Amino acid sequence: MEELESRYRSAPWYSAHQQAVADARRAVQRGLDEAAAEQLYAEAAELLAQKEYFDLKPIVEQLKSEYADTAPVTDASRKPTFAELE
Question: Domain extents for the chain?
Fold first, then answer.
């Protein structure tokens, strides 16, 4: 996306579609954040199952601080829930 923006920033179509480009950038970032959070959640769930609480804590803190609005943190129907990981 950055390359697209830097290459075509002065093009007339870019200014006409700047909002669409920004929306696409946000959608891509959201997908990357969800994927990263899912990976951390899977690791945290495994550590919880192994009762590795010391190793679990930094992962839970990272999920809470960096990915608070992602499904692994907000979806209460997951097992284990994020609250159980805390």
Answer: 2-85
